[in-house]
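Students often ask why inverse folding is considered easier than folding. One informal answer: many sequences map to the same fold, so there is more than one right answer. In these notes we will look at a single instance of the problem. The structure comes first.
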C-alpha cells in the first residue's frame, strides 16, 4: 500500500496492472488444478475394482494385471498434473514480469498527454501568459483538463495586464497633481518677505513631494520591468555600470566613511535594456550605502564565465535573519517592523531589481552573511557577442 500511495502515477498504474494480472493468473491456475483433481478422483492410485467371483487362476492373474496397469496409469496422470502445475506456475511468473513491462508501456501511452500538459505549463510564466496548451484530440478527461488550464491562464493574463496598466496609469496620472503642488509651493515661497513658517512648511512639503515622486518613478520602473518588453535591448557591461554607479555615489560613500573594494572584470557582458540594468546596479549600490553602518565597508565585483554575467554587492553590518532577507524582493518590504526606510527609501529598490533580473531571464540571490551584513548576487545570461580587449579595472577606496 505504501508503494501505491507514494511514487508516480505511472508506477502505481504499472503495479496495479501487474497485480491484477497476477490475481487473475492465480485464479485460473487454481481452477485448472481443481478440475484436474476432480478428474483424478475417478481413478485413484492403487484402488482395485470390484472383484469378479471366479475360481480360475488365469482370470485372477488378469485381474491383478489390470489393477497394476490402473495404478501405473494413475501415477502417470499424477506426474503429468504436477508437471502441468509447475509449468503453469513458471509461465505465470514469466507473464507477471512481462505484464510489468506491458503495464509500464501502457502507462507511458496513457500519461503522455498529461506529461505534455505539465511541461507546457511549466514553460508558461508571467511573461508569456499569452501561450496556451491548445491540446487537440477527443473530448476526454485529458482535453477537459487542458481546456481548464487554458481558461485559468486566460484569467491570469487578464489579471496581470490589468495590474500593470493600473500601476502605469496611476503613476502617470499622479504626476500632474504633483507638478501642480510644486508650482503652488514655488509661488508661495516667491512672494515678497514670506513668513518663516511658510518657508519651513514649504521645505517639509518639498521633501515629501520628492519622496512621492521617487515612489512613483519606482512604480513606473517596476511596471515596465514586469511587462518585460524592451525596445532598447542592447549589449550591456555590468562592469561599466558598476563603475558609473560607484563614481556617482562617491560623495555619499566618503560621507559615511565606507571602505570600498571594487573589482570588475571585462567579461561581465549581457544583453538587455541598458536603462533598466543601469537602474538595477544603481539600486544595489544605493542599498549598500543607505543601509550600511558608518565606517563600514562595501565590496563590489563583476565577472563572467561564458554562461553567466554576475554582479555581487556585499556589505557588512549586523547579523540578519534569512527569512526576513528572503522577503526583500517583494514591493515595500524592509528589514524590521518599520514601514518607512532611511533617506526617503520607498521599499521598492530590491523589488525593482528582482523584477528586472527576472524579466531578463536571470536570477537574484539575497543571502544574509553569517558574519553580518548582506550579499546580493545578480546573474544574467552572458552575451555571446561580447567585445574583447577590455582591461581589468580595480578600484579601492
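Output (designed amino acids):
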Amino acid at each position: 500500500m505504501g508503494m501505491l500511495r507514494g511514487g508516480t502515477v505511472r508506477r502505481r498504474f504499472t503495479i496495479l496492472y501487474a497485480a491484477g494480472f497476477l490475481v487473475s493468473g492465480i485464479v485460473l491456475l487454481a481452477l485448472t488444478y481443481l478440475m484436474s483433481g476432480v478428474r483424478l478422483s475417478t481413478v485413484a492410485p492403487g484402488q482395485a475394482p470390484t472383484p469378479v467371483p471366479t475360481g480360475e487362476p488365469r482370470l485372477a492373474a488378469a485381474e491383478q494385471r489390470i489393477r497394476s496397469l490402473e495404478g501405473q496409469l494413475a501415477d502417470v496422470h499424477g506426474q503429468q498434473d504436477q508437471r502441468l502445475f509447475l509449468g503453469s506456475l513458471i509461465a505465470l511468473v514469466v507473464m507477471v514480469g512481462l505484464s510489468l513491462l506491458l503495464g509500464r508501456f501502457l502507462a507511458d501511452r496513457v500519461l503522455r498527454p498529461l506529461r505534455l500538459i505539465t511541461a507546457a505549463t511549466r514553460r508558461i510564466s508571467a511573461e508569456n501568459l499569452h501561450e496556451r496548451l491548445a491540446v487537440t484530440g477527443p473530448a476526454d478527461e485529458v482535453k477537459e483538463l487542458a481546456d481548464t488550464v487554458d481558461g485559468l491562464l486566460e484569467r491570469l493574463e487578464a489579471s496581470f495586464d490589468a495590474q500593470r496598466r493600473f500601476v502605469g496609469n496611476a503613476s502617470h496620472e499622479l504626476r500632474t497633481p504633483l507638478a501642480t503642488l510644486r508650482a503652488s509651493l514655488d509661488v508661495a515661497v516667491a512672494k515678497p518677505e514670506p513668513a518663516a513658517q511658510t518657508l519651513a512648511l514649504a521645505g517639509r512639503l518639498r521633501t515629501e513631494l520628492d519622496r512621492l515622486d521617487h515612489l512613483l518613478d519606482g512604480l513606473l520602473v517596476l511596471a515596465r520591468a514586469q511587462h518585460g518588453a524592451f525596445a532598447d535591448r542592447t549589449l550591456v557591461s555590468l562592469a561599466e555600470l558598476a563603475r558609473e554607479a560607484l563614481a556617482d555615489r562617491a560623495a555619499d560613500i566618503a560621507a559615511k566613511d565606507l571602505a570600498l573594494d571594487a573589482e570588475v572584470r571585462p567579461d561581465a557582458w549581457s544583453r538587455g535594456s541598458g536603462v533598466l540594468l543601469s537602474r538595477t546596479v544603481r539600486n544595489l549600490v544605493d542599498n549598500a550605502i543607505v543601509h550600511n553602518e558608518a565606517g563600514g565597508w562595501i565590496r563590489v565585483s563583476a565577472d563572467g564565465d561564458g554562461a553567466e554575467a554576475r554582479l555581487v554587492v556585499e556589505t557588512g553590518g549586523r547579523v540578519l535573519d534569512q527569512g526576513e532577507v528572503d522577503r526583500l524582493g517583494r514591493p515595500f518590504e524592509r528589514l524590521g517592523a518599520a514601514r518607512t526606510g532611511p533617506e526617503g527609501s520607498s521599499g521598492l529598490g530590491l523589488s525593482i531589481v528582482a523584477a528586472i533580473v527576472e524579466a531578463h531571464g536571470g536570477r537574484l540571490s539575497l543571502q544574509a552573511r553569517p558574519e553580518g551584513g548582506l550579499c546580493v548576487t545578480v546573474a544574467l545570461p552572458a552575451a555571446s557577442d561580447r567585445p574583447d580587449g577590455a582591461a581589468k579595472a580595480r578600484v579601492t577606496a
